[in-house]
Write a structure and sequence with these properties.
- By secondary structure, the protein is α+β, with helices and mostly antiparallel strands.
- It folds into five domains: 46 residues; 100 residues, 2-Layer Sandwich (Beta-Lactamase), CATH 3.30.450; 118 residues, 2-Layer Sandwich (Beta-Lactamase); 131 residues, PAS domain (Beta-Lactamase, 2-Layer Sandwich); 110 residues, no CATH class.
- 55% of the residues lie in helices and 21% in strands.
- Helix 9 runs antiparallel to helix 10.
Length: 576
């Protein structure tokens, strides 16, 4: 019985051992499977990171990641190319706080703190620094990197906006040139947005409309025309907005004092400040209209005289002759062959003849300065039957030129007409043109004088700069190398500061020549151009001659002379 019980116990224990071994075996299998999965996951992560890095290197943007302290933990090839660094530099350690100009470092730190606070930054402008120290403008975009819901750094990219900055500067200069031309234009010019609100006006527009520029910029195109012109003005403005060119003659414009002025207006759409706007150029034609009205009045007066004289001729030949002979205008009758049939006393005096008989014995064609003009005059008479306000150049018996306006009628073979002497008016017009040409010559001479004055000014500035630099500053540098007490150092520092203030405008010119040089390289280049040797420059700077030679080599590299035999001094002198 005891033996049976013992056998049962043995079987039970054996079963428990087998069960435990099975469990241990299964647990081992699970552990081995978990390790395989971990290794597979790590391999997959590394493969994904490799693919990500390859894709990132293909992107044109400059991608980066950094930790909480600004230390860069990832960059792509675009970043290295943009900043001039190598992978070796990256592995040594780079920090975003050191990759901007010192003035922007605090702003970068603030931006990083903002990102670590869970915010994003978009289109924030900084001035970045390349490895060689040269600055360039960028726009930064970045967002936080989180681990277990905690910000541990940031990732983002930067965009080099140098070309955009240059384009903006070019656009600004172009607009400034346009503004200068516009302000100095003799004709009034107004610029309006597509809604008709004025956005720019020149001085001539202020004079024409009687408003100040500030008042005009608060107005609309509908406010500078009378009410009965608005429909036509609105239609023309709409056509301009759609790209058409509009030219209107005798358009009435409304001044601030309520008076109406006629003007010729040319309008078109143009690009201004990066936008499409409407430009209107006005020309006051008040004087021209007054002249035309006077001419029209004279013409009407002449026509009335002709009508009156014609009626009176039918009533009385004697009365007609009395009126004609005493008329203020020259009256005549000829035939197509060129013989005078009748002329009044005014015509005789006009052509400077002593007597009527002498005048009548002279062929008509001799009165023309150019005989071909009579042929053209007769041809038009034959075609139209009459001519009005026909302008001719005639010549008197004494050889004087006379300009006349002629009205004439052809009846069969006879030509009846009258002429008005406009010689004085034509001479006034020619005198006006001569005065305009004289003013233009004066303007040209003034521009030449101003240009010469600017050249003289620049020459004087350069002379002051060279004298201070060559005759004063070397002695100050020499004094600085000597043992001086504190008071002497103080006065020497004040003297040096004041001299630098005096020549600072000239130093700006030198910096413009060497925009990509460091301050020390600018000084070294300037001394080389002045003929100083490396040994002399080293003595002035208190450094070894090899240090100056190193600066010279960097200057040659930046000027593109590293592999050329060009003399550095000669090249620098050519940049003046």
């Amino acid at each position: 019985m005891a033996r049976v019980f013992k056998m049962k116990e043995t079987k039970k224990v054996r079963k428990q051992v087998v069960t435990e071994r099975t469990r241990t075996h299964e647990k081992g299998k699970r552990l081995r499977s978990s390790e395989d999965e971990r290794r597979s996951a790590e391999k997959e992560i590394k493969e994904r990171e490799r693919r990500f890095a390859e894709v990132a290197d293909l992107l044109p943007q400059t991608l980066f990641e950094c930790d909480r302290n600004g230390r860069i933990t990832f960059i792509n090839r675009g970043f290295l190319d943009a900043f001039g660094y190598t992978r070796k530099d990256f592995h040594k350690g780079l920090n975003v706080l050191k990759m901007v100009i010192p003035e922007d470092a605090d702003r970068v730190r603030e931006g990083l703190d903002r990102i670590l606070g869970g915010k994003e930054i978009r289109e924030v402008e900084f001035t970045a620094l390349r490895k060689d120290g040269s600055p360039f403008p960028v726009l930064a975009f970045a967002s936080p990197i989180t681990r277990e819901n905690m910000p541990v750094g940031c990732r983002g990219f930067v965009v080099n906006i140098t070309r955009r900055k240059r384009a903006e500067e070019a656009l600004r200069e172009s607009e400034e040139r346009y503004r200068t031309l516009m302000d100095n234009a003799g004709d009034p010019i107004l610029i309006a947005d597509p809604e008709g609100n004025f956005v720019e006006a020149n001085k001539a527009a202020e004079a024409l409309f009687g408003y100040t520029k500030e008042e005009l910029l608060r107005m609309n195109v509908t406010q500078i025309h009378p009410q009965d012109e608005l429909e036509e003005v609105t239609r023309s403005f709409r056509e301009m907005r759609e790209g058409g060119l509009r030219a209107g003659r005798g358009i009435r414009v409304l001044r601030k004092d309520g008076t109406v002025v006629p003007a010729d207006v040319t309008g078109s759409s143009v690009r201004y400040a990066g936008k499409t706007v409407m430009q209107g150029i006005f020309r006051d034609i008040s004087e021209r209209q007054r002249t035309e009205e006077r001419l029209a009045e004279s013409r009407d007066h002449l026509e009335r005289l002709v009508a009156e004289r014609t009626v009176e001729l039918a009533r009385s030949e004697k009365k007609y002759r009395d009126l004609v002979d005493n008329a203020l205008v020259a009256i005549f009758k000829t035939n197509l062959s060129g013989d005078y049939l009748y002329v009044n006393e005014t015509l005789v005096k006009l052509f400077e003849f002593e007597s009527l008989e002498e005048f009548l014995s002279t062929p008509v064609v001799r009165a023309y300065k150019n005989p071909e003009e009579r042929t053209a005059f007769i041809a038009q008479l034959r075609k139209e039957g009459k001519v009005l306000n026909y302008e001719l150049e005639l010549i008197t018996r004494k050889g004087k030129n006379k300009s006349v306006l002629m009205n004439a009628i052809l009846e069969g073979d006879e030509i009846s007409g009258m002429m008005l002497d406009i010689t004085d008016r034509k001479e006034s017009e020619r005198e006006l043109k001569r005065k305009s040409a004289s003013l233009e010559e004066l303007n040209t001479a003034l521009r030449v004088l101003l240009e010469q004055r600017e050249k003289d000014k620049n020459g004087l500035e350069d002379k002051i700069f060279q004298n201070v630099k060559e005759l004063v500053l070397p002695y100050i540098d020499s004094l600085k190398q000597r043992r001086l007490d504190e008071e002497q150092k103080m006065y020497l520092g004040i003297l040096e500061k004041n001299l630098n203030n005096i020549i600072s405008p000239f130093i700006q010119k030198m910096r413009a020549l060497y925009a990509h040089f460091t301050p020390t390289e600018i000084k070294v280049a300037d001394l080389i151009r002045d003929g100083k040797t490396a040994k002399e420059i080293a003595a002035m700077f208190g450094v070894a001659e090899t240090s100056i030679n190193t600066h010279k080599q960097r200057i040659r590299e930046k000027l593109g002379l590293a592999h050329q035999k060009t003399n550095l001094k000669t090249y620098l002198m050519s940049l003046k």
